[in-house]
Amino acid sequence: MTTAAHALQDVRSQATTPALSVRDLEVHYGAIRAVSGVSFEVHAGELVSLIGANGAGKTTTLKALTGLLPARAGEIRLNGVPIRAQGAWDLARRGLVMVPEGRGIFARMTITENLQMGAFTRHDAEVESDMERVFDLFARLKDRRSQLAGTLSGGEQQMLAIGRALMARPKVLLLDEPSMGLAPLMVDKIFEVVADIHRQGVSVLLVEQNARRALQLASRACVMESGRITLSGAASDLLDDPLVRQAYLGA
Fold it and tell me: For the whole model, what pTM was predicted?
């Protein structure tokens, strides 16, 4: 095969390699199997939603993907590279970044310091310009950049948590219940931001209690029940699925 043919083959391979690939993932809490045989993919530039009832295993799945919980079995690949059992700090450096449920901001640090922590693994000259982009996205944070994060409202803390994740320049962004506990206007703002991040080409895996909004935003979705994926497909199809509507959409 010629050099040109090899190059073309490499380009085609990269184009078809998912940004995130999960195969037969299994996670245990002691003797309890919380996630069993979960498989799905997030393609480059795609937004995929993972919906399901409380306790279905959604957060456990995200924690296993990011190295915060050990996976008992299965395969996890980031852009084709196996990453199972790697530390969360290494995965963030590689571009797999999570906004955790509950936000996890550093309450005794200022907004600016929290954003700087998001860029902790970076050593390039564009950290300050990226921080300004976060402030452009969240003007309310810009006006309060010297304020302690613990004094912010719940919605402002969620903005900060997302902004901190963006400072790591994620290739795949995992969002765990970003609208939980927020007022309706703030929920709208958060979903607008998630849509904007997706439009900029970031691959997104969204776990969200508001199933209707999640399905409206996503291109594909998976339904998780009792630690397993029980249904998957185009998000628009799941929106119209009678079982999904009855179980998760209140219709």
Answer: 0.90
